[in-house]
Design brief:
The radius of gyration is 16 Å and the shape is elongated. The protein has 86 residues and is mostly helical. Helix 1 packs across helix 2. Helix content is 44%, strand content 0%. It has one domain. The longest helix is centred in the C-terminal third of the chain and has 18 residues.
Length: 86
């Protein structure tokens, strides 16, 4: 069985309130990579949960993933966690 990218059918334009959209986005399993830049900065509960978990942008998410991989590689040097580059 081929694995496909998970996409929600949620559209920001279908919601009047941003917090309702973010609530449903969180309950559907979280944002996709394409949704990360639309999180922005918000002051509501669901906005703060999403930003603290996934970051406020794709760039911030990439930095967090790279930092986690670096820590994992340091703690387990005998296993290649990060892709080896020449």
């Amino acid at each position: 069985m081929a694995r496909s990218n998970r996409r929600t059918n949620l559209k920001r334009s279908d919601y009047l309130d941003r917090e309702d959209y973010l609530r449903d986005l969180l309950r559907s399993g979280g944002p996709d990579l394409g949704d990360l830049d639309s999180l922005g900065c918000g002051s509501g509960f669901y906005s703060q949960v999403l930003i603290s978990t996934w970051g406020s942008s794709l760039e911030e998410f990439d930095k967090a993933v790279a930092a986690a991989l670096t820590l994992e590689q340091v703690s387990r040097p005998h296993i290649f966690v990060k892709k080896w580059r020449r």
